[in-house]
Design a protein that fits this description.
The chain is built from twelve helices and nine strands. By secondary structure, it is an alpha+beta fold. Strand 2 and strand 3 form a beta hairpin. The protein is elongated, with a radius of gyration of 25 Å.
Length: about 375
């Protein structure tokens, strides 16, 4: 029903604005920054642009964050990095209703643009909506709903007035950490699959809150770019509360049990499963266009070499175990000053103990 309602809204909007009418002098353009949601795809919030012109009875929101779950091979395309996102337009009332229903905050920043700039931005948005530019290949950091809005505003103004003003000395991984405060499994999964790029300095603006902060500080012709700022939907903070099963303690207990059981078959099965995970990480790094998953050093912790442990014996097993321990040590040293060190520490400790124990039994 939700999808049908969205499509019907889009149909009527397209019919209404296909001719891209001229805006009146009373027109206002604003940027919406929307709070995080409960679903993984809404964890980081959202950005959209509102065009309001009461003279022409226009109140429409342009949204670059749309995608179709029914896309053939959706998950494979998402992992590979060639999933097509697209811009849609909906009425202000329909857009806001969804965030009111989900109790997600919406902040509106009205832009201090000239009439010519407003008209130009309106035309740019409609060109995107009614042309092949409607679609774009989603990239987690480099191209998303926030960067698309930022690019359109910069293009309208004619210079890069919007750029990152938040802390650029920390890594992308550190920037993302607070978003998973109550979502341990999301945090663990994303930190496992993300590679070296997310440990580089977070110099690019890519999150909705970063664009909001940039807009607040931007000036055009010596005047603030944001003429007015208001909270449209107050929102309710998501407070899941502590859950043992949604915490690192659950993982730590499971790993401690595996170590304390001290049975070779259990150890080999566990390490074999980690090897499968490492093989998956290596495959994704080769398969995907997402730069965030390239050069994933977590393959040293979840090592594909673990897959051969149940099938080799004697001196060969000795060599394999020593090689795995050396790689584990290198991984630990490399990870020591990274944001996810303590998140991965239970795996580091348990893997080290299990590998060393197997090696001692060989001697």
């Amino acid at each position: 029903m939700k999808k049908t309602f969205l499509l019907l809204s889009l149909f009527f909007v397209l019919q209404s604005y296909a001719q891209a009418p001229k805006l009146s002098q009373e027109a206002a353009i604003s940027v919406f920054t929307c709070g995080k949601g409960a679903e993984l795809y809404s964890t980081f919030g959202h950005t959209a642009i509102r065009i309001k012109d009461s003279v022409n009875n226009i109140d429409v929101v342009y949204n670059y964050g749309a995608f179709d779950f029914d896309t053939e091979h959706f998950y494979l395309k998402f992992v590979k990095g060639d999933l097509q996102y697209f811009i849609i337009a909906s009425s202000y009332a329909d857009f806001i209703y969804e965030y009111q229903y989900d109790n997600r905050e919406v902040i509106e920043q009205t832009l201090n643009l000239s009439y010519t700039q407003k008209e130009q931005l309106f035309e740019l948005l409609n060109q995107s909506l009614f042309s092949e530019d409607r679609y774009y290949t989603y990239k987690f950091i480099d191209r998303n709903c926030t960067t698309m809005v930022m690019d359109k505003i910069n293009q309208t103004i004619g210079k890069t007035i919007l750029k990152k003003v938040d802390d650029q000395s920390i890594s992308y991984r550190s920037v993302l950490y607070p978003y998973f405060e109550d979502h341990f499994w999301y945090k663990l999964g994303i930190n496992i699959i993300f590679g070296a790029k997310t440990d580089s300095k977070a110099e690019k603006l890519f999150l909705p809150i970063e664009l909001l902060n940039s807009l607040d500080q931007a000036k055009i012709n010596g005047k603030p770019l944001v003429a007015k700022k208001a909270v449209i939907v107050p929102g309710v903070a998501i407070n899941i509360g502590f859950s043992f099963f949604n915490s690192i303690y659950f993982i730590a207990v499971i790993l401690l049990v595996i170590v304390l059981v001290n049975k070779k078959p259990v150890t080999l099965v566990y390490l074999f499963l980690l090897g499968l995970l490492g093989l998956f990480l290596s495959f994704v790094g080769l398969y995907s266009f997402h730069k965030e998953v390239l050069w994933n050093y977590n393959s040293l912790l979840f090592n594909p070499i673990f897959l051969v442990l149940p099938f080799v014996k004697g001196k060969k097993l000795n060599i394999v175990l020593k090689a795995c321990l050396v790689m584990m040590a290198a991984y630990t040293l490399f990870l020591f000053n990274k944001a996810d060190f303590f998140l991965m520490l239970p795996f580091i400790l348990s893997n080290g103990v299990l590998l060393y124990r197997l090696l001692k039994k060989q001697q």
